[in-house]
């Protein structure tokens, strides 16, 4: 298995909503990801699991999104049959759960940010519970910072519960520092939030730090997908 990052799509909404509910059980109302996908200010990325075993890629047809494998469909008739089967699978997939559907990727984490007034404000980041501590949160945050840099954001900022030391450790690793505190920010238990913000992400020093983090990440976990 390997994990890749790409922009979130409409078909990911169900899986991402499940991850959100699991990660933020007291959050109400739940995020309308359909609306977020239409929001020009919002940018969402997902990490998906890719089965890179030979057997499975042959099974999927070896192509992207379940397209037929050309070497398996030599004759025109075979090609046609493969296309029809792919179409049938797609039809069936609407009746199955998103994760079971043939050709649908299993989403294991997501991150979202709003680009406002030159700042990328992270609205949420979460990894599916059973996939935590495998570098997925880091892959998402790294990709988010890279995308924010491409979009000419000056800095990346977020709120985090004062008790959420795991998430804070992740942000600190990526150069976020505490720049403020919001008293009673969370409505469920009135917990305070730390505001954590990066330095100017386009600065040479931040980009050098990011390049080192990325290299270390690739050594430890393998290649991260590009957003
Ligand atoms: C925070 C969260 C996204 C981290 O995701 P993850 O995939 O487990 O994170 P990673 O495996 O990529 O860890 C990267 C770094 O984060 C830090 N970290 C993550 N979880 C941690 C934990 N439980 N305790 C301490 N540090 C932790 C570490 O610095 C780690 O680096 P290391 O492996 O070199 O020690 C995940 O715990 C989660 O979804 N939590 C619930 C939702 C949430 O709290 N989101 C943040 C809201 S502000």
Spell out the key features of this protein.
227 residues, alpha+beta, Aminopeptidase, 7-stranded mixed beta sheet, 37% helix, binds coenzyme A
Describe, in plain words, how this protein is organized in 3D:
- The protein has helices at 13-23, 33-38, 54-59, 76-93, 136-150, 165-173, 204-221, and strands spanning 2-7, 42-50, 106-116, 119-127, 155-161, 177-182, 193-197.
- With 227 residues, the chain is α+β, with helices and mostly antiparallel strands.
- It has a seven-stranded mixed β-sheet.
- The radius of gyration is 20 Å and the shape is globular.
- The protein has one domain (2-52, 104-221): Aminopeptidase, CATH 3.40.630.
- The site of coenzyme A (COA) has 19 residues, from strand 4, helix 5, strand 5 and helix 6.
Q: What's the CATH architecture name?
A: 3-Layer(aba) Sandwich
CATH class: Alpha Beta
Averaged pLDDT: 83
Question: What is the string of SSEs from the N terminus onward?
Answer: EHHEHHEEHEHEEH
CATH superfamily: Gcn5-related N-acetyltransferase (GNAT)
- Spatially, the strands of the biggest sheet line up as 1-2-3-4-5-7-6
> From the helix content, strand content and strand pairing, which structural class follows?
alpha+beta
Question: Which ligands, by name, code or SMILES, are bound?
Answer: coenzyme A
Distance between the termini: 19 Å
* Unreliable sequence segments: 55-102
Count of structural domains: 1
**Percentage of residues in DSSP E strands:** 15-25%
The DSSP helix count reads 7
Principal-axes shape call = globular
Number of DSSP-assigned strands: 7
Share in helix = 25-40%
